[in-house]
Amino acid sequence: MGVKGLWELVAAAAEHKDLTALAVEGMRPTSGPTMLYRVGVDARYGGSHWQKGKNPELRTLVFRLSNLYTKPFAVVFVGDGPERPGNKRDINVGKKSHWLTTDMKDLVVAFGFDWIEAPAEAEAELASMSQAGLIDAVLSDDGDTLMFGAVAVIRKCVSHVLIVALDIDRPYSSSSRKEDGDVVAIYRASAIQENPAVQMTRGGMVLLAVLAGGDYHKVCYGLFKCGAKIAHGLTRYGLGDALLACVANSADDQSFRVALSAWRLELVYLLRVDPRGFIGQRCISLAASVPEDFPNPAVVRAYARPLTTSPDNITLDDSFGRIMKFDLAEIAALCKKHFSWDEEELRKRMRTLVWPGAVLRL
């Protein structure tokens, strides 16, 4: 899920780097222990195939945790909270915590990583933490983290070997990890705004969601027949920043609707005329088809001002970013419990998945 077409539009601004190099280069000296590169992870990234059942899902999480564990990162996982939307893209996703959440949290904490729960959506909470400087980057495949305002997003850090490792009988070793590589794409808000081929602010990304479709639209539609290319052209006119200004400067619902009405007139004009050629064509029929009630005020607010915790109230451990903590005995106990590994299998998996990271973090 996420903003339709966003990753393709911002691809030119991406920076590609080895994950370990990113972690090492991001370490910073302080008056005390060295500050590690701090990464926030959408908990759903740890396991993206809920329908496969408990054990395969937790196996995936263990392999992904071990991958992060072997890098000098400080990691906090953020889970969705009770106020997350119950419906996305006309699909009922439910508001209750997933039945695997407790087991996931236990594994995350055993590996020495932090876990917090957002009041609503994890993507929005992570973006807020990024803006506040509590983390250096967000690890997520969901473009909403960028749209919500994250300063930097790391995408696709998990190598192919960690995906195929769902087959518990498949051999896994450090050599197979190396062959696959850990090159990631890093999307920085500053680069997205400054790259000549992209030139998109956070307001532009919100505009893209409103026009081309995102999680809060039914069946992913925004403005019917307005694709990402047209929406991107409109961002060059500053229409996205103007939309955020409508939200920020409206004292109540009535003034917000009045502001959106004036904004809609500007949208129609730009579609019909394209005065500076940013869209690349005049979209006369599309301009004529813009509904009088577009955009939906609730959808605009959901994108522009998602529910998040005030940064002052986020309860990260005081040692976050400085102390590498882990519990080898608990990792072994949880793996034995969830995967029914015998002693020989447990030793093999601990040797290949856990010991390299333990040596790094001693």
UniProtKB/TrEMBL annotation:
Cited InterPro entries: 5-3_exonuclease_C_sf, PIN-like_dom_sf, XPG-I_dom, XPG/Rad2
GO biological processes: DNA repair
Q: One Pfam family name from the record?
A: XPG_I
Molecular function GO terms recorded:
5'-flap endonuclease activity
Question: Which segments constitute the XPG-I domain?
Answer: 109-181
What are the boundaries of the signal sequence?
none
Please give the superkingdom of this protein's source: Eukaryota
Which organism was this protein described from?
Answer: Lentinus brumalis
Q: What is the name of this protein?
A: PIN domain-like protein
